[in-house]
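User:
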Amino acid sequence: MRIVIAEDDPLLREGMAMLLRAESLDVVAATDSPKAFLDAVDTEGPDVAIVDVRMPPTHTDEGIRAAVEARRRRPGLAILVLSAHVEQAFASELLAGGADRLGYLLKERIGRVEQFLLALHRVAEGGTAIDPEVVTQLITRSRPDTALERLTTREGDVLALMAEGLGNTAIAERLFVTDGAVHKHIRNIFSKLDLPPTDRTDRRVAAVLRYLENPRGRT
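Assistant: Predicted structure:
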């Protein structure tokens, strides 16, 4: 796995590089600006990019914009975005083009090495990794969606775990149910959210986006 890091904090940048190299992963570049990052994407041909949301010069959305440009230049590049805080617009923007090979983690998660590495491998293998804290905070900040309110408690639990990037087997293990039960809950979720089968839309991604943008109210 060839990895490029884009992080302007030198301690965090070098710390991540050392951590990943200690895990026998190939960090081919550790950059401190969007331009240097995109240059590395062009020259190094990485499999995965770890990108800070806020980078120079304005420390607003340069990292997100650089990640989008990197995917344009290198289709299929896995992106793991890091943020110091939950930023709803960035989380939604990150998933708007599809959830494959994408992740959004809070920087504090890096200190939990096993979880950080699990998320990295998940996006590298084509999956999605959304920080559980991101999901939790989006729930409390967003307005309710009446369609989401039709979900049962267990269906809501399944959708929340889908939003974290878990596959059906992992969801079944987390909830102590069978794979068949998870499949049934997901079919019910699609039905209640009015997501019929279509070649144009990945229903799983569409359901997760609905959840992140308008999670159902909970008591």
